[in-house]
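Minutes, project check-in

Agenda point 3 was the complex the collaborators sent over. CS summarized: three entities, 1252 residues total, and the question is how they sit relative to each other. Sequences were read into the notes so everyone works from the same version.
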Amino acid sequence: MSNKMHIKLTVNGEAHEFLAEPRELLIHTLRERLDITGPHIGCETTHCGACTVTMNGKSVKSCTVFVAQANGADLTTIEGIGDPDNLHALQTSFKEHHGLQCGFCTPGMITRAAKFLEENPNPTEEDVRFGMAGNLCRCTGYQNIVKAILATADELNAAKEAAE
Amino acid sequence: MKDDITREDRVDALGGMGCKRKRVEDARFTQGKGNYVDDIKLPGMLFGDFVRSPYAHARITSINKEAALAIDGVVAVLTAEDLAPLGLHWMPTLAGDKQMVLADGKVLFQGQEVAFIVAKDRYVAADAVEMLDVQYEELPVITDPYEALQSDVVLREDLDTNVPGAHGPRKHHNHIFTWEVGDEPATNQVMDDAEVVAEESMYYHRTHPCPLETCGSVASMDKINGKLTLWGTFQAPHVVRTVASMLSGIEEHNIRVVSPDIGGGFGNKVGVYPGYICSIVASIVTGKPVKWVEDRMENLMSTAFARDYWMKGKISATKDGKITGLHCHVTADHGAFDACADPTKFPAGFMNICTGSYDIPVAYLGVDGVYTNKAPGGVSYRCSFRVTEAVYFIERMIEVLAIKLNMDSAELRRINFIRKDQFPYKAALGWEYDSGDYHTAWDKALKAVDYDGLRAEQAQRVEDFKAGKTRKLMGVGLSFFTEIVGAGPVKNCDILGMGMFDSCEIRIHPTGSAIARLGTISQGQGHATTFAQILATEIGLPADSITIEEGDTDTAPYGLGTYGSRSTPVAGAATALAGRKIRAKAQMIAAYLLEVHDSDVEFDVDRFTVKGAPEKFKTMKEIAYAAYNQAIPGLEPGLEAVSYYDPPNMTYPFGAYVCVMDVDVDTGVTDIRRFYALDDCGTRINPMIIDGQIHGGLTEALAVALGQEIAYDKQGNVKTGTLMDFFLPTAWEVPNYETDFTVTPSPHHPIGAKGVGESPHVGGVPCFSNAVNDAFRAFGLTHTNMPHDHWRIWKTANALGLHD
Amino acid sequence: MIPAAFEYYRPTDMDGVLAILAEHGDDARVLAGGHSLIPMMKLRMAEVPHLIDLQDVGGLKGITVEGGTIRLGAMTTQTEIIGSDTLTAAAPILREASLQIADPQVRYMGTIGGNVANGDPGNDMPGLMQCLDATFHLIGPDGTRYVAARDFYEAAYMTDREDDEVLTAVSFDQPVGGYAYEKQKRKIGDYATAAAAVQIVKEGGKCTSASIAMTNLSDTPIYSQEAGAALVGTVVDDAAMDAAVAAMLGDIDPTEDNRGPIEFKRHVASLILRRAIARAWSRA
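CS then shared the predicted structure for the full assembly.
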């Protein structure tokens, strides 16, 4: 088989170095090599978004990125979005608005939503639905996810205003 | 300080039934700390992957393992030949049939499991899958059940047509069973005598539950202690343990089955799949833990599908619309093996709920199950027991009858509803409906949507269309459904001989917190939240102080699992009753502590008080402590209880849905303008979770009605094997739903709850479909089949001459 | 869904890329965003023993609008196209079309170069490039050559690009007049049932030039010269529209798939084109 490559990644602020086959899919690197199991595998054809992570500032579906491509990248997964003592507003809001059920899509959903709100801090409902259309959920019908994201936007804006 | 607290405060502090308690599950899920099967990693774990058949029907002429085994890191290649000495190359299905674990001589559907590769990781396994040399000789393929019943081609060579199957005699080598309910001669007589008879044939297409997490398992055989542990995507872990024991010969106490977090089930994870068995065998053979996780294509091609019912209906009525009889025949395509997860005595599930919400004096249902070259499965998808098919059938038949009578279908429903005073109502096809108030719900729904206003708007739209002012028609979809859930009474409901009771075991800890374990398993329903609410109300300890645990057969009491909206009706009842046992003992402890007679204290929210002297009380927290630190005469220490609940009847949730839809006759594109859903699920435990269930179920219903299907070509190739073609709507395609409710408690359930998870799917599918059909009613359409995707709607419009 | 093993290269300049291509011929493929190629590799429908990642190759990114010419480096992503105010001012049809491609995550990764070079009839950019009469810049061992988008596509996944060439950029004259990209699809993330790209110039109330291309209605994108010609000299009334649609229908050759039978696709193609022309005309 092919030669292994020397790979360097920064994931949630932590540097990792290892040898891997270039064909290794980033989602497997995260989940199996680095034990970062928040991002999930749902469809494997870039439709469901359960594997969404932020790579160099972009939301990407890590099932469709080779680890070789990601060599040198800076990644954020759900594990880096917040921590138990310092939750991201989205994490609180998804709970508050019942924006999840089985939880399988949730890490990708929140990771994507965090990036989305960075890019569009004042979204309309339509914006949210369009901006989140790369993430499938089978349980919630999206209604409460959309609600949770809109509420987070309001909350973040209010906090920003208060700070200013 | 305690004195300042009102009774209302004490109720609130419990977080019991009826409150919108936030979910305790969410902390881990929102932080990426769920624990799903594919998250499990054990030292030395190997990975299993299937070689699957590219053909829908073929004889296997040879399998050469050499090239696959030559790959570095491949540990084993298992075929039917390897499993045969263990008797594991076939397994029993839940429907009394048997199914190949690995192809034994031939394959019967595309995607069937042929060989199981075990390798050091999933990459090596995938490479070996490519390298396994399997030679096939193609056989004629049958994908149509009507053709199957005429064909000389024998699909199941392992069966003798002359020997009756699990559900009686077989009429043909591709026939599985005939199931009949009701009085056919009497029904035919009513049809012959009727003033009006409407007939329709409809096909409820094959689809798939497609939870976001696919199926998988991790088996770990500990040869030293003789103990097998099996983690997996199991909606019924206890049944899996029993089946695994029966198949493997390992005694049941030496098998531990664990359902960890499950990424959605919707019925897909009820059945037992070859992957589970192969991971077990591979672990036994290799002595190492073996993980098997299917990919999405495998999930869609080989695990339990849903529906695939060809239904022929006749409904008779007086000319003023009073229904006099119903006749239904179904040709049921079960695929290559009959692997429906029905209660044993119900080979077509509860299809005999097809008289719906209506007082129909005479009815008949006949179902013929048929083998074809398609994947096995058959009842799953947010409705385990064919209730979706039944409700779709009757709600379409009502519309067809309304057209025949030239009547408004809302009115037709109203004059035929079972009246409130008729409950408990014995239906013509055998079920006894527990409670209902259909007229109230219907009136509330129609008023909420301004039904008359909608019809006026629709009439205007038809005029505008005819005048060339618009190319969009407007459909008003109605459905009124009666569900049948909470399977079920052990006297007539079992799965593989296991009665369909469920269970709860509670331990109260000395400091007044508790753990309760149940025989069910949440897949997103939020059991850890809602069952704690039931208990909080029943035993007076805060829900936040109660841990709910499910899914580990070593610790949880035996139960039949979570599907068919049975958790609340059955395990929820067990929970309430176990709680009452706790309370009964607590009462004795309280009386002892308060130095009065047992009958002189009464339960009040979170305490027992002396009757007539509420200032004298002991809180449940105090009582819990006393149970462990005081020697109470006549009482054992501790505070524990277990309840196994055998429900006396099913529960019958119901609801009224209205969908307002625009249909572009040129592009076939539909736009859901409004969806109103009124649900009556009896006592409401957590309104927030109920709403969430309804949003989700309606979205799944939308998908099924408007495009989602497992389609095959003539060669038996699956045409919809990835999420490019298998329609799962995104946030962009889904509307906001308006939810509403009435409350008609179940009279036989300890807390009056009926279950809700399936309702929106069961009621939603006919509602969306009726909206599409209704849009074309003014142009002469009686019925068109789902899925109502763009091209099929266009075809309907085209056939009606709307493009001329 | 696991791809077969491959050798991975990440050269830092085009010479490096070309050397690897020269060495391995059709055993080598270049990788841009990978969102067409990687799924094919995962399904083992594309075998790529040598994969050349272009991400570190300089000069392949960027949008320039200069002297009436627009140039997009091959590695420019859909998201960058959508976000470029300069480009949207100069050629708004690109943003309109890009927003209808796949979903946000895919648009972050998907590039114009990958989209046009892959030859997938479901991709939107090839048709759009034909509508804009774009030129594809191909670099190979003998230097750079320029191929018109309208001459580039031969069949599904078959293009004029040689195995040892790399598509480095697309360029086109800044379009004038009204525009529309109209697409019908089953859901977000789906390919088009039918899509139409239209640019129309209106002078003195009449159409003076029109360019029309269709997507996913043949095994290549379809530039329908006659459809455009049918509009020229007219006031884009019903008759002109009918003529354009008729001409387009003569050029497309759709096949049946899960999106529907041939007659439906032809019907939707007609409708989509009418809508696109109407919108473009209203903006002209």
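Noted in discussion: The longest helix of chain A spans residues 143-163.
Follow-up: revisit at the next meeting once the mutant set is ready.
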